[in-house]
Every structure is written in structure tokens, then in C-alpha cells.
Amino acid sequence: MKKGTVFVLSGPAGSGKSTVRERLMNRGLNFHYSVSDTTRAPRGTEKNGVDYGFVTKEQFEEGIKNGNYYEYARYTGEYYGTPVSQLTPYIERGVNVILEIEVAGAMQVKAKDENAVLVMLLPPSYKVLEERLRGRGTESEEKILKRLARAKEEIQLFDKYDYFLLNGDGKIDDCVRQLELIAETQQYKTKNNPDFPRIFFNTEE
Amino acid sequence: MKKGTVFVLSGPAGSGKSTVRERLMNRGLNFHYSVSDTTRAPRGTEKNGVDYGFVTKEQFEEGIKNGNYYEYARYTGEYYGTPVSQLTPYIERGVNVILEIEVAGAMQVKAKDENAVLVMLLPPSYKVLEERLRGRGTESEEKILKRLARAKEEIQLFDKYDYFLLNGDGKIDDCVRQLELIAETQQYKTKNNPDFPRIFFNTEE
To answer: Do A196 and B162 touch (CB under 8 A)?
Structure first.
């Protein structure tokens, strides 16, 4: 049976990646959204099992020890990770999985699965990113500067990603469509169909 | 300026590659169809400069010597090749180029340009291929067997191609659309946009 493909969507705060991912999921395609575990506290309306699996530090470290995380990373003291159970069973039965994770985790995914597709979502420029982050008006200057510094680091890994999508103003639906096209074209990749030559010559079909 | 992408379309006789390529060209996209040179004689309604550039063996060999061919190969005693003039000037000014060439030439293109996109068009099975070739009713049994043997050789290079498209009965327009999607997604590849991080940080724009 043909396996599903792992899609990683990364991008700085202010790139709009959650919105793009949510709209992609709403299209009813053959995608499972992998819910990450985290040790950080829930914010606002975040629900356990929907936005994140909220676990304790002890639980997370026990999970690491038991090999329960496909990838994980630590940011500002908190763990974030993809439970194997959110990924492997879906891939095995041909369902694509989308991970919305940070660059460090993305690098781990690519190292484990060279057919994983890494997509970086970006605003058209650093200037636009800065305007968006300041425009929110909800965060301290310190936090904004931290997010900007992090974005600069993230974009250093641009060439480790397979694709990038530009989320300019009003371009969210374009990005969703582009992500959908990228997903569709994966099925035409020869490396995702190594059995095809055998199938081609099997005249019993 | 952003360069165009080289697309190679290969596939056995009976795969329908000329029809797919013609319909793609008729869509008015940003594509130039590279007209190959050949030393073989024109057939039927073939026109010089449209279907092929028909040249003499001496002219072709002089062209090889002068580096005028981007790729070339010899089949059943005749030369086939892509003139540099059909490719480089278009790529340089951002136009995509589509080459309808054989596997040996495709390997040369990939070796010269790792961003070239190799697409193999195939019928769904060897059995269908055989039926199509026999169904034409215009070729000798000897020629059909030669074409089938060649198809077997070609499919050995399946995994050297980036993508493959299945041209089942009535699927030509699906293949054209799939090829168009593959072309579109190339522009979202990070490796085709190595300057983007620089552009991102350039706040002068």
C-alpha cells in the first residue's frame, strides 16, 4: 500500500501558518493534522488534544526516553514534540500528515524521512513581518524583538526547506492552494512510487 | 532576473508525449518548445524548423565539434540533439523550455542542470503499451518488438526521473494539467529562489 507523505509547515510568528494549515484542513483532503505535545501552559482558548497535547515536563521526558516522539525541541525552557502516534499510523495507511513545527524539529523530520516535504511560509519581507508583529499591539517590545531575532535565525535554514510560500497581505488562500498543489504533485514523484516499474510489467493486473 | 526551468518530457512511443506537449504548448503558458535537430529524413507532414531542424550528418557533427548541442544522442544510426540556441537564450530571460527527448539526452540535461525537471510519461502498463503499438496497425512486427524492447530499457531509468505521469486511455488532459501543476510548483522551490533570503531582508524595496 502506498504510504502517506509527511508535510512540515514552518514559518515565523506572523507568517500566518496556523491559518493556512486550518484552511488546508478544512478542504477535506486526505490530511491528518498532527497535534504536538508541549509542556507550556495552555493560552486563551487552546484545548488539550486539539491545539496541543498539554503534558508535564516529567511526562514529556518519560516520552523522550521511551522513543514516543518522532521529533522534539525545546524553546524558552518548554518542550514541543510530535508524538509518533500522531504520525506513523497515518502514514502507514496512506494518509498524509501535516506538522506545524519549528525549524529544529523540521530538520529532525527530514533526517528521518527524506521524502518528507518541508514548506516554509514567509511574509514577503522582514519589514512586513515587523509591521505585522507590531500591528498586533498585544506583545511587549522585548517579545517582538525576540520573535524578530528568531525569524532571522529561521530564515538561515531557507535552503534546507523544499518549498517556500509567500504570504503577502490577502494571499492566504493563494498559499493554501499552492500548498495543495505541492501536495498533489508529490504523488507524481518517482521516488514516492518506487514499485511502479514492477507494477507496469505485471501483466496479471 | 529569475531564470526559466528546463522541463524534459520523455516516454516510449505510444505514451502520447507529443500530444501532451502540444496541448501544454496550446495553453499559452510561459513555455518555449525546444525544436531538436536530427539527421533522419522528414516523415509525413513533418516540417523543418517546426517538428525538427533537419540537418545533414556533416552539419550535425560540425555542430557537436563547435559545442552547439546542449545534449545529443544517436539512435539507429541517426543523430538527435538540442541546439543550445533552443534552450539557453530562453532560460536566461526567464522562459521555461520543454524538451521532448529520449532518456539518454535527459540524463545529459540533468547532469548539466540539476534544477532541470525530468518527467516520464507512461501508459499504465506494458500490456497497454503493447496494445497501443499493435493497434496503430501501421508498423511491422519487427518495428513493434524493437519499440517494446526500447520501452523496457527506458523504464529502467524510471528512478532517474523526478516525476512520472500515467497516460491511461482518455487521460491526456489530466496529464497536461498534472504537468502544468508540476511546472507551477517549481517556482515555489527554495532551490529555484536562492536569492530570496537576501530579498527578504532588503528593506529598501
So the answer is: no
